[in-house]
Amino acid sequence: SKELFVIIGYSYVDDCDLFQSGEDPDEVLASMQRLINSWGSLMEVTGGALRPDKSWWYLVKYHCDRGTWKATDAGADKELTVKGLLDGVVQTLKHLNVSDSAEMLGVWMSRSGDRSKLVSHLKQQAIDWAGKVRLGRASQDKAWTALTTNVSVHLKYPLPCSTLSEKECKSI
Fold it and tell me: What is the pTM of this model?
């Protein structure tokens, strides 16, 4: 068709985050629906499909409150859809509020900036790992190797894309 289009997103293996921005929430929503339709069509060429059961969306509106930018939800009464690959049935995508956390590319994030789910998830990972090491009765050398090659790598993974404070990191 030689039609020109622009897609902005982040992909890693089979995960992808798509973004749209603008001034008017209704225009942003319409633009995102067009993007979802285009992305879904592109995936069909390779035999892939968008998975409604693994997909969600936010519509965020920012406002300044006493010098601090705050994210608010602008999409609670709105809808985005995707066409199923096998049956062609149009399905509604799950809408999340800006304060809801969701796992994206292995990292728990909230559009509002709330880090509590990420911190609790990482704490639980550390606690589970420590319990397994204690039960396994590994030698100090093996425990150190497991610490430096396993759990610490897992715990460091989300740091570049998160804004955890030093206090939150130490609590983990």
Answer: 0.70
* 16 close to 64: Cβ distance less than 8 angstroms: no
Question: CB atoms < 10 A from the CB of 28, how many?
Answer: 20
Tell me the C-alpha distance between 149 and 143, whole Å. 10
pLDDT of residue 134: 86
What confidence tier does 9 reach under pLDDT thresholds 50, 70, 90? low
Question: Is 7's pLDDT higher than 70?
Answer: no
Instruction: Give CA separation, 1 vs 5, 6, 7, 85, 100, in Å.
Output: 11, 15, 17, 22, 40
Distant-in-sequence, close-in-space partners of 40: CB < 8 Å, separation ≥ 6 = 49, 50, 82, 83
